[in-house]
Amino acid sequence: MKIVIIGGGMVGSTIAAQLTNEGHDITVVDRHVSVADRISDSLDCMALAGNGASLELMRSADVPSSDLLIACTAQDELNMLCCVFAKKLGCRSAIARVRTPEYADQMYYFKEELGMSMTINPELNAAREMFKLLEIPGVLKRDSFAKGRVEIVEVVPKTGDMLDGTRLMDLQRKLKCRVLVGAVQRDGEVIIPDGSFTLRAGDKVSLCAPTKDLVSILHSIGEDQKKAKNIMLIGCSKVTDYLCFMLLGEGANVRVIESDPALASAFAERYSRAEVVCADGRSEAVLREENAAGMDAAVTLTESDEENLILSMYLSSVGVPQVLTKVDNTEFGNLLASRGDSRIISPKKLCADAIVRYVRAMQNTEGSGVITLHHLVDGQVDALEFQVTDSCRYVGKKLLEMHFKPNTRLACINRMGRIIIPGGGDTLEAGDTVVVIAAANRVILDLNDVFAGEE
Asked: At 66, phi and psi to the nearest 5?
């Protein structure tokens, strides 16, 4: 596909890197010459310097004949303007990154009246991700497939837990239900394991299971399932706004700490049921006074990645059971993620991932089989959902007859709403959807790409 990206910052460059690797024809436009030069030097794509909303530059970037324009600059209004111009010039689809909370109620208008194919709010997406994690303590990450019927969750077993020392071939017998381990990260190395693999404490384990069984499975393996009731939010960012609204709607007790008096006052006015404290959340004395150690969960949401990372390490050290950290620079996030038990949420990375999923969906309408894509274990493994069609080589055949490429495996089958965690005797049928786990260095656009002998 021919795709033009307006904005070469962290979101734009991340999208460009992934879509270039998948074989798309990418052009990036950024107003800064240095950014355009960096992208053209580091990626196999074209990069232009200039105003992305300029009709002349849009024509130079060949927007009129492009399949998709993605506007992801730091300015909402510029992003919307770029999309309107792109559609008027004949671009097939247009996506705008829109961050301002005041625009949230106008998304329908943007799509229906202004012709945008999709609007995406990184902060709202981040708040939703955080809310999902706070719903089920004990997991580091949750990804949904099969219209929410299946989830892949990341957990880290502790010494003495049921998973510690368990061979995968014995796991279903111990749990008394069907579950599959799709990937394991151990000492920085990612493994897509077979049945002989033995789990141990400290592994980062990706479990695939039906959503309806998830809570009982996590309880069985020793993960605390007491839902967080008392939650501390540090910093009044856009994410705080969305997350506080969601938590209050579920009856949580929310305490917000913000050092800026104007922000704290405005937040307290908007959310009268939240306890808003105007104080410096970086102060150990303040955190002690506000009983941070007694909270069920804490989320660090300041505008500084460094402050969020340091605060999260402190909160974990004083015994807060569940600590979530907002970061925008994914390199900073990797520092904390290397501890194994950290929950890192990057609005910008979530935004990039959502846009890449949309591009995959566009391809799906043109013959590619990918329905949903999620990244596991810090982006080193992909979980891909496919529609099984008659063109699949193994329709009607048993799993034990299938020959998968190295570092790929079938995680689950959705057959008319019935979720199957497959064994050797299960078959693939036309009309099924399946989730495949594969190393991220493999480019897989069709279900047949996962089978040996198909290059």
From this structure: -85, 155
Domains held by the chain: number: 3
Cα 155 to Cα 335: distance, rounded to the nearest angstrom: 18
Q: Distance (Å, rounded) from C-alpha 252 to C-alpha 273?
A: 10
408-415 and 370-376: which strand pairing? unpaired
Q: Are 29 and 48 in contact (CB under 8 A)?
A: yes
Do residue 49 and residue 142 come from a single domain? no
CA distance linking residue 402 with residue 426, whole number of Å: 11
For residue 151, the enclosing domain spans: 138-220
Q: Of 62, 68, 61, nearest to 24 (Cα)?
A: 68
pLDDT at position 371 over 80? no
pLDDT at res. 338:
54
The verdict on 154 and 208 lying in the same domain is: yes
Instruction: Determine the Cα–Cα distance for residues 199 and 164; give it in Å rounded to an integer.
Output: 6
Using CB atoms within 10 Å of the CB of residue 362, give its burial: 0 to 12 exposed, 13 to 18 middle, 19+ buried: middle
Per DSSP, the residues of 203-236 read: -EEEEEEEGGGHHHHHHHTT-------EEEEES-
Q: What is the pTM of this model?
A: 0.83
3-state secondary structure of 238: helix
Last residue of a domain, one of 197, 220, 243: 220
DSSP state of 65: G
